[in-house]
From TrEMBL:
Name this protein carries in UniProt: Isochorismatase-like domain-containing protein
Pfam family name, one: Isochorismatase
Hydrolase keyword on record: yes
Chain ranges of the Isochorismatase-like domain: 13-182
Family: Belongs to the isochorismatase family.
InterPro entries referenced in this protein's UniProt entry, alphabetically: Isochorismatase-like_dom, Isochorismatase-like_hydrls, Isochorismatase-like_sf
Keyword Hydrolase found: yes
Source organism, top-level taxon: Bacteria
Matches recorded under SUPFAM superfamilies: Isochorismatase-like hydrolases
Lineage per the UniProt record: Bacteria, Bacillati, Bacillota, Clostridia, Eubacteriales
CDD domains assigned: cysteine_hydrolases (cd00431)
GO molecular function, one term: hydrolase activity
Length: 189
């Protein structure tokens, strides 16, 4: 049985689906699910928001664990000017929105809250990488701001299946409904 959502006040958000993160081979399945979600959003005429991270230098210096690994490059590697671009597999349309964040949560220090309110969105379907970092941080802060979240678990991933599963099992259910892209159903109430 699917999860039926009212299309009114609904938007779709992708976290950190950028070349430097989502371009890793291990995330191909997640990218495919994100493609399905993006297509569904466009068919349903839902607002789409892409969030990418360009961390402040002091944040990079303080990163530990997965955050550090996801954004790391060897000192000998030249900086890629396209590393922060959204991956080609998820083409950004002119009507889509792109938000640049500098820390783990997409709400901290960005225009995201204002954008969601201007678009009259109160419920967000979210996917992205990493489940336990950017996705979870955004959901936690957004829930505290009064937004409802639906996490498309197959459109999310972490560096390890254990980290992904732990976030979905122990943290995110307190702040969001968990489903898969194929279980999403839409209506108007």
């Amino acid at each position: 049985m699917g999860l039926r959502l009212n299309r009114q006040h609904l938007g779709v958000m992708f976290i950190d689906m950028q070349n430097s993160i989502a371009g890793h081979e291990q995330f191909q399945g997640t990218v495919a699910a994100c493609q399905q979600l993006l297509n569904l959003a466009h068919v349903q005429h839902l607002p789409v928001i892409f969030v990418h991270v360009r961390p402040y230098e002091h944040v990079v210096r303080s990163m530990r664990g997965e955050s550090e690994v996801l954004l790391a490059r060897r000192a000998s590697d030249p900086a890629d000017p396209k590393q922060y671009d959204i991956i080609d597999a998820l083409p950004v349309r002119p009507e889509d929105h792109v938000v640049t964040k500098h820390v783990r949560s997409a709400f901290i220090g960005t225009e995201l809250d204002h954008l969601l309110r201007a678009l009259d969105i109160n419920t967000v379907i979210i996917g992205g990488i990493a489940t336990n970092i950017g996705v979870e941080s955004t959901v936690r802060v957004g829930a505290d701001l009064g937004y409802n979240f639906v996490v498309a678990e197959d459109a999310c991933a972490a560096l390890s299946p254990e980290a992904h599963d732990a976030s979905l099992k122990y943290a995110l259910p307190f702040f969001a409904r968990i489903t898969t892209v194929s279980e999403l159903e839409f209506g108007v109430e």
